Each structure stands twice: as structure tokens, then as C-alpha cells.
Amino acid sequence: MSDHYERVKIELQQMKAVESEAAVDEEQLSPASVSSVPADASFAARRDLSRSSINGRSRSKSRSKADGHERQVNGKLTLMSDLTPLKPDYSQEKGQSRASNEQNIKGTLKLLKGKTPANGHVESCQRQTEGKCEHHGKEDGSKVAKKRRAVTVDTSKAKTSLEALKMSIRQLKWKEFPIGRRAACDIYWHGVSFHDNENIVSGQVNKFPGMIEMLRKINLSRAVRTMQELFPEEYNFYPRSWILPEEYQLFSTQIRLLKDNDSTLKPTFIVKPDSGSQGDGIYLIRDPADLRAISGSQIKQAVVQEYIQKPLLIDKLKFDIRLYVLVRSLEPLEIYIAKEGLSRFCTEPYQEPSQKNLSHVFMHLTNYSLNVHSGNFVHSDSCSTGSKRTFSSVLYRIASKGVDIKKVWSDIIALVIKTVIALVPELKVYYQADIPPGKPGPTCFQILGFDILLMKNLKPVLLEVNANPSMRIEHEQEVSPGVYEYVPSPVDEEVKVGVIRDTLRLMDPAQRKQHATLNTGDGSPEDAIAVETGSDEKESLMDSLPTLCLKQVFPKYTKQFNNLRVAERIAAIFIRFLGVKGTMRLGPTGFRTFIRNCKLSNSSFSMASVDILYIDITRRWAGMLPDSREAGMCLQAFIEAFFYLAARRSKAVPLREQVLLLLEVCEGALEGQSHSHSEKPRPQRLQPTQASAPNTFSSPALTRRHHLRQQPMQLSAKANTEN
Ligand code: ADP
Fold this sequence. Notes:
By secondary structure, this protein is of the alpha+beta class. Helix 10 (217-230) packs across helix 15 (405-434), helix 21 (566-578) packs across helix 25 (655-676) and helix 24 packs across helix 25 (655-676). Bound molecules: adenosine-5'-diphosphate.
């Protein structure tokens, strides 16, 4: 520990030197200003915005009619500033003493504990005295595990991640097959999608089917919104968003009302094309009328989102954080977060948006791909300066100002787990369609790139999740006027090689087997890793490698987050009734069977009403998913139907409780049928999840059952076809 402390002291001294050169006037990061931010600023915004009481629901008009009364985020149009929890602890930071700064630094140390040279920044940043973020040769002296067959990796489809992948394979002493091979490999590394190679029947692939689709901006917004409807407070880390073109009217009306209620309000919105990336096609607006139309008056498919106006600044620059997250498996759900990430900086000093600066991309957008073209972009070999830095160097920097970075880090972990939980239901539907239960197929894992913005009050905000985060370890640089070349980027190498290598280590088939049999599920990541280094042979190799830079966060924190896995239980019911292998849409018969088997129809809800419900919702969702090739009810539509049925059964309690009650009814009925063999459930690789065992969720709903008020809830064909 004291060793670490020494390193941090050196780190801090270096940073101070850089700081004094760079910014005498770094107002935002002085402890006083960080501390004084949240309370006042967000209170004002909260007061202002909450004056307008606008229905916050926006999935669809007809749905509002059918069941809308419960699905509001406090019944108001809530913007990020509105949702931001106050952080009294920061307000105490004014005039923070050196002692408490040191406390924070110790916290930083603990956070980064276990980082070792080749993956951690600690030693490498120490070497910045030489101005370099070097790589370390610890692996070179490693003893090779002799008896064990080397793990085989097919790298033929790796594309731009190839360089980092090769390095990782070399470090692990595994065997690379750069042009693939006839016999099966243990691991297949794809550059883009699960389908890069269609002929895999065993082993492990580094992409999940459907991940790209799920992480398009509209689908991500929808998945998070479903969770916001169930758990508004838990999911307030995602800025308020509207889906275009279908919610254009709603967006216009809500903003008009907001402004009518308070003429001093000047909200800004960011428009992001659905399938865009790297900042492509993104622009800021201050009024719905400024939305750009393409092809006549048609508004392009996009998400328009509340723009976070008060980001945390360093050196007066806006920056975001790219964190790498490994979803190691869906069933059981296993999530790891890389302890190290990247911070990408803007290249023009930040000012709050005004009509004048709205188009200044170098001020508002942190994308590397954009800022690299600015004359102000600083390529640096150091991890803690320049336009791309390690995230830990940013944490050190803010820790030195007295910020409670442990809190920042734990908020980020929570954001990541909650986001993955929002994605899992749909991913399971894709999974069973592509790898039907009982058919040979690979298992999947995937590294995701989370883009996170820290608000001035240090609350992390999710910007987007990338299915294919760049794993390039070189960057384009103008080596002489007009001549560009790819040159090694030490910061990228530092972070990305560690992430890939540790992902491979976690996916080592031998260790996975051991992990599966030995992990009795107490949920400790340390245990999981200890299991993985269990054998002598492995130990010798593991000894020579740095400790994992990937930290398991789920199931480690199962207890805190398992109650959020409600949509996943609905998805399990959906999958059960899909019927035909390889499909993702529920047909009318499947829907009827679901209603019948769960005993949901009765004299006041006839099978004819069931059919109307099915047609209404399915038709409307078909309109919202124009590209879809399959007919039938998609999972999101089924969830909407489920919410409707839940509201119909138990009126006027919060939606979450209505849904939990209905889930109990359905799961109870289906379980009974499975036991009595009256209906044979088709074999499923993705069962209604052990992790989401019914009793995890049942008690709160049951204890409040007697509070339920009964209110009639109508769904008419008319209401649903209005859209
Ligand atoms: P892309 O996939 O095109 O990179 P992002 O959603 O990541 O799209 O947005 C690009 C950049 O815009 C982000 O890196 C961030 O700097 C900025 N940004 C995105 N959303 C917001 C927001 N809601 N508030 C403030 N800045 C944002």
C-alpha cells in the first residue's frame, strides 16, 4: 500500500506541474467550485422545470390512453438537471483540508489496487517523468504452461482490433489462426458482428447476436425507457429522449409547454441519427422547429435528447469517458468492467450552449474522430495530458481536488449494471433465435464501449453504448504537412491490450469449465478469479501476467440490482410462447396460448378482446419498426401488452407493482403446468432464469396487495388505432 502511495504522490506532483503550466484558471475543478455546484444549480433547474407539469410518458398516444396514468416520471417532463440527486457530500468539500484530500487519494488507491504494470497506469504513469506511457516486459519472462494445449483463436475476422488482439494472444502464449482453420477454434474474434462468420458451431464468439441492433440509438432509448417506466429513479442516468419521427409531435408539445410555463428556460437538445456513430450527423437545437428534415418533410429516424449543459470540465474542456465492459455471459448474467478507460477531450474551451456556439463541434462533441481534425488536438505519449488520456489520470486529477472519486466510480458501476440489465431481455430473444436451444452453436461474450459524461456535480450520464468500440492501438497523425500515417498510440495500447487480454483470459475454455463447476454462486468476483488461477500449471502462467484489469461487478452486486430484472422475466414468458425455433415475433396463436395458459382471460376479458389487444399493439409497433422483416409481435410490443394486462388486473398501484403481481400470476400458472406436464415447455437454453427466481421479487408486491385500488381500464380498438 505504501508503495502505491508513493506512486500516487509522484503522480500528483507530475500533475501539479502540468496543471500549473496549463491552467491557472481552472475554475471548475477547484474543490470549492466542484463542491458548490450541485445543490444550487440543479435545485434552480429542478424548480424551473418542475413548474411545467407535462405528462412524461411518450411511448405512444394510444398507450397513454390505455394505461398512461401510472407511467410518468413523477408525472412531469423531467430533464436531467431535474432528476439529478443532490450530493450533500460535495457541498461539504468547500475548503476541504489536505487530510481529506489524502483520504480521497487513498480511496483512489484502493480503487486501483491490484493494477500492475502491463494493464495499470500506475507504474506507467510513474514513467511519465520520461514523458512516456511505456509498455512493460513482464510477460516476456513468463513460463509457458507446457502440458496444456494452447487455446486456439481464429483472428481472421478481427478487422481493426487485430493489432491489439495479436499482442494479447502473444502475451498469453495462445495460438493464433490468422486465416482461420478447418477444425474448430476455441475462440472466434469478430470485428463487427456475430454473423461475421456464419459457420461456427462450437467454441466462443466475441459478439452476441442482436447487440448491434440493440445498441442503435433508438433501441437503446426504448430499452432504457421501459426500465424508466418501471424504475424511474434508478434509471435517471439517461437524458430525457424522444424518438423521431414518431414522437416529433410529443416533443414539440412538451417543449412548447415547458417554455410557456417559464420563458427564462433555454433548454438545448442534441439530435442523433439512429444509426450514426463518431459524431456523424449530430447537431444541437434549441427549438423543435429547428429539426432538420431530409427527403422532403420527412424527419430522419433519430433520437433527440436533452443536452447536458453543465458537464464537468478539465482545463476548461468538456470530456467524456469511454469505459470497456465485458458481458461474459447472459445466462447467468456476468458483467465485468475494465478498471482503466479513456477520456476523450474536446479541443475548444467549453461554453454553455448559446445560439452563437451551437455549431461549434470542437466545443460540444467529444468524439475523437472529430476532434482529431482540430488544430488544437494534442497527441501525447503521456497518459495524463493531451486530448486522449486514461480515465484513471482524470480520476487522480479530480481526487487531488478533493472529490470523492469512490462515489463517482460506484455510480458508474451502477450505471453500467443497470444499462446491461435493460438490454438483456431483448438480447435473450435474439440469442434464442440465432442459437436455438438444442442446436449446436457457440456461446457468446462481448466487449462493449460505454460512453459516459460526468456532469458538473459529478453525476455520470450515459451517452451511448457501442457494440464495436474501436480497439485500434494506433492513431492517424500528420507526420509532415499533408502526410498522414498510422502511428502507435501508447494510451490506446495501454488500455485496450489489457482489456482484450483479460477478456481472453476470462474466456479460456478450461477456466470457464472450472468456473462453471466451481463457482457456487456466492457472487464474489475475487472468488471467480481465484478459481480461474487454481491449477499449478495455470498459476505459473498467471503469475507471469498482470492481475486482471477487468473487475467483476455482476453477479458480485446481485443483491443490489436483481430486483431490476423485471423485463427479463417478461421476456422469458415471451420466449416460452414463441413456438417456432428461430423466430423473434409472437404470432396471434402464441399470444392466445399465453393468455390461456396463464389464465388471464375471463368473462370481462374475452378471447375476442385478447385478439384486439394483439392486433392493436402489434400493428402500431410494426409502424414504428419499419425495417422489420418478420411479422408478429416483438418483445417491446409484448411488454406493452403485459403492462396493459398488469394495469387491467390491479388498478392504480405503481406500474412496477402491477407488473410484479401479474408476473407472479403468470409464472405460478406456468410453473404448475410444467410440473404437471400438462404442457410440455420446449427445451430452452435460456430458461426464465434462475437468477430471477420469482421469490426475489414477490414479497414487496404481495405485502402491498391490499393497497391496490381498483380502477376500470379500457383498451378499445379505437384508442389503439389512433396513431
Ligand atoms: P456518436 O455515436 O455519434 O458518437 P454520441 O451519442 O456518443 O454519438 O454523441 C456524440 C458526442 O456528443 C458525445 O461524445 C458527447 O460529447 C456529445 N453528447 C451526446 N449526447 C449528449 C448529451 N445528451 N448531452 C451533452 N453532450 C452529449
